[in-house]
Fold:
Amino acid sequence: MKKLLNILILLFIVSLAFAGGYEVGDKATDFKLRNVDGNYVSLADFDNANGFIVIFTCNHCPYAIAYEDRIIAIDKKYRDEGYPVIAINPNDPQIQPEDSYKKMQERAKDKGFTFPYLFDDGQKIYPQYGATRTPHVFLLKKESEDLVVKYIGTIDNNYADASKVTENYLEDAIDALIAGKDPNPNFTKAIGCTIKK
Structure:
């Protein structure tokens, strides 16, 4: 019994060590993922960016769908300020066929996405970031050669009705960075569908 308990404790410690994911203040790594136009995109491609609004999202999730128009509006508002949206679909299309690359292409065209919509083929990037939901936001700021995580969480406080939003967490965080300040809050709980893996 004691041996079994020791094994369970060891497994728990190992699982914590490999849980991964960024916290505010961590340095994020770049990636190179395929966009819906067939080209590969990395953050290094954006010479004039001051940072990035990385959003893990997808086609099928009702939460992700509810936020699509708001994400387009955020991209239009902030890309010229140096903070473009980079959307990434983290889901396994074998588990959720609605999130296949072909369906991503169709969705991006139908909605008129103004930002890259990338496919996390092999699901290698979302665990590095620690994304658990769609949508899940990671706001990055360029500091010298580093991409520093400045905000993690949700977009606002009412996914169901944009007209009833009273807290624009993501926009407030971006505005703070543009003003040379740190976001407050810098973390909120992501609300959405679980990532399909």
Remarks:
- Residues 4-18 have pLDDT under 50 and may be disordered.
